[in-house]
Amino acid sequence: MLQLESPVINLEQLAEQLKVLAEPKRLSILQTLMDGYQCNCELGDVLKMPPNLISHHLRVLREAGLVVMERDQQDARWVYYSINVEAMKTLLTHFGLFFDPARIKPRRDTCGPNSSSIQLVELSSLAE
Fold first, then answer.
1. Which residues, at least 6 apart from 79, have a Cβ–Cβ distance to it below 8 Å?
2. Is the pLDDT score of 4 beyond 70?
């Protein structure tokens, strides 16, 4: 049987991103941003959320590296948000590696009645 090695995944980073994504409103924002660049007011209209709440969730998503911000070139007061494509590719790769069912190994008999250590103890006691 082919033995797969455990992939090298930054578990701290993965856990932090999972924590960020565990908020349904943030998932809704990401889903909406999949349609392309959006400003705060567009996101608020689509998601029926107040601007301050949108801003809060966007800040958390930006700090996690999942969303990028870009100012309008003609009027810097306008800010547009989009998905960080490279971060999404990395996240998808790490999710795929971490949650890959092929990584699940069969049970090892290291304890319990079928373990090799218990069988050795039983054999040694029989020899006495």
1. 39, 40, 69, 70, 71, 72
2. no
1: in domain: no
- Across residues 57-85, what is the average pLDDT? 94
Q: What is the pLDDT of residue 1?
A: 43
pLDDT at 49: 95
Provide the pLDDT for residue 87. Answer: 93
Name the 3-class secondary structure at 80.
strand
Going by C-alpha positions, the residue among 104, 65, 105, 57 that lies closest to residue 87 is 65
Residue 4 lies in a domain: no
Backbone angles phi, psi at 69, to 5 degrees: -115, 140
Residue 49 lies in a domain: yes
What ranges make up the beta strands (E) of the chain? 38-39, 67-71, 79-83
Domain range holding 118? 11-127
Residue 75 covered by a domain = yes
Count the domains in the chain.
Answer: 1
